[in-house]
Amino acid sequence: MEEVFSMKNIIIIGGGAAGMSAASRIRKLLPDSSIKVFEESSYVSYAPCGVPYYVEDTVKDINQLVTYTPEFFTRERNIDVHIRTRVTSVDAGASEVSFVSEAGEGSAKYDYLVLSTGAVPFVPVKKWLDSDNVYTVRHLEDGNRIKANLSRASRVAVVGGGYIGVEMAEALSRQGKLVTVLEMKRIMPNLDQEISSTISSYMKAKGITVKEGFEVKSVENLPNAVMISDGRTTERFDAVVLALGVRPNIELARQMGLRIGETGAVWVDEHLMTSNKEAFAAGDSVEVKDVVLGKKRYVPLAPEANKEGYVAGSNLSGMSMVFPGSAGAAITKFYDMEIGSVGINEEEAKANGIDYYAVKIKHNARASYFPPSESIEMKVIFDKKRKVPLGAQLVGSEIFGRLSTLSLAVSYGIDAEKLFFSGIPYAPPFAPVWDSVIVASRIFNEHVL
Amino acid sequence: MEEVFSMKNIIIIGGGAAGMSAASRIRKLLPDSSIKVFEESSYVSYAPCGVPYYVEDTVKDINQLVTYTPEFFTRERNIDVHIRTRVTSVDAGASEVSFVSEAGEGSAKYDYLVLSTGAVPFVPVKKWLDSDNVYTVRHLEDGNRIKANLSRASRVAVVGGGYIGVEMAEALSRQGKLVTVLEMKRIMPNLDQEISSTISSYMKAKGITVKEGFEVKSVENLPNAVMISDGRTTERFDAVVLALGVRPNIELARQMGLRIGETGAVWVDEHLMTSNKEAFAAGDSVEVKDVVLGKKRYVPLAPEANKEGYVAGSNLSGMSMVFPGSAGAAITKFYDMEIGSVGINEEEAKANGIDYYAVKIKHNARASYFPPSESIEMKVIFDKKRKVPLGAQLVGSEIFGRLSTLSLAVSYGIDAEKLFFSGIPYAPPFAPVWDSVIVASRIFNEHVL
Nearest CA of chain B to the CA of A425: how many Å? Predict the structure, then answer.
């Protein structure tokens, strides 16, 4: 029985973080299984999050963004990787996958499937992409294209002011471009207004033109320019980067008849099994539990994708492992301003009818006398009844440790009193003796007493 | 009743972190009380942890190490601060304190007392201090003395290789001194051997002479030199810094007849009340609960002192607040090598008969392709039965956030599976997608399955 199980045929559709994490886990747990990975692009196990840093030239070679090559997986882990191979359909009844590659069409049977088809950049109107001067930022190929063509552009628009938009604004600015960010709502729209304002002010100070409340209605291609209009004014750019977020790639899931969740991503149970018990799914194509609000949430983040792949691979291999969900911790930087958040913001707390208290502080990043003098702007949303942090937003210097600590507290409901007494390590070069996390907790505790 | 209570006379002995934290808390909760602080030195609310950074000249002015002046407390918080005033005895029966200052002797009655007498540097033989060239590192005055006299020294010995010893070795080395560290056990003796070795190797690479297993038997003063011997060999130095740790200053507590705890520090209950219910105690003179082992532990750290002062002040003022204890999180650096720990090490796990598993990894501090390429050496001790981390030791770059996160997990028993799924925020400049904390947890989880 175990023997038979361990010799199963596994097919993994999509060789990104989730897919290769699942493949490696299955190989470890089922040494005798056959594992095939079909990947549409030329890369597997790549880090799309690194693309902005390749564009800005901090990362010199695009191949550095590839953790392992297809050959590595084949040679070292006996995983049969097929790049530039697109799965065209899945016959769930026959447990068979059809694919097409340079070599032609083919098909393969499976006992278990891992759907890790990832996400696609959101582009409201497909024909916006009908230009050599309009880019999305998703695949390593995008990075290559942007970098190859960048020299001919001087004025560049970044459409979308979220994580990728902010990162691309820095990257392009560092490359000497005149950058305009066009954002429908506000810079970093997942952060509350006042935190967003801190960031947009800094972006402006660094020479970025920031237009908030700007909804792109049309993108028109001219021979050597791209015209962008919000319906009232039209601006001319040499190149345009679309950073409007991503949507789950659910084409095959739909075609297979898998259940699609409330967020529009593939529904999975807590074991990451889809509505078809031969198919697991992981990564940017699935929705997971929001550990703060308890409902489903679409969290297309790399750490989540990697762990989902690990969990899906574990369960597929006969273990029982629950993916507990995500609080959506994320971090980035714009030049030397670090930006991060976890859980919900004040807008979401209000929208969900939560009895909350928001603590806002600006605090030293280290002992006041220890140079450089840098600070952290922190906003923490506490649940007044349960006295736990529900979310945090941080902007400034040295935010990683505070965000990581708050993320753990948000994820597991560590209350503000415990957080107050938590052992944030102290030494003058690292933190003030009353660290920002401690101070924020103290303010909340004193407020609700 | 409330009225009468709020008009109590409070005396605080010792104006360091714990004492001034208590004073400020009491002023807030009991606006009409009379608060007197007696402080032996010339400073209150000072940061002794900053002294090494003053010696190395990162901090230019010793006054920067003073958070608030006595005048500030008197003017802004109506706290009656008496510096250069030594309390000579406490008559617990009469609830009266006797003191001596430049102005002569005096006495004052109290309704409640806060004993925050701090700690004294451990010096095995008092006469070792009978030299202008032998220093301890505790008070701001020590910093002044070292810096004033440093120019005449070339060869300097630092006796003791713990936190302060390592910091002073860097400070003196940065000032161009030839530094020898003499340590009875090993560098950073609270860390396990292999972690200690990483640190001592780096110290040697930076030009420090490190002698481990060196027990100082005698310190002899010559007119312009200090001779140190371990009984076999004798070495000559121009100056000697004694960094042998601290001992609780329990003189007054003993004289008052207060209960002294198993560690030799002042015993307090969880409300930080001493065995005399008119007297609270806080800071480096008390022992607190070790949250990992459950027994009492002496933890003379600044964040603990500050919070203890806050808790003692709260309870003295009629609130009921429990000080939960400490996991002893601490951090420092030697040049660009960061060093930190929390909870117990492997030696302590063994000595306490704990069924543990130690995970040791060396991991990237950020995405492998993101410069600078730096790493973290991490050792985590997990309890095999309860599956929680009991302690962690970290050496390398960017350890603060990982240590802070692990500290929270150690303090509140967050198990390795939860830690694996914790939302360590990810972006290439900050962390690898599989962060060291996640990897260490995964290794433990896979081991105990």
Answer: 5
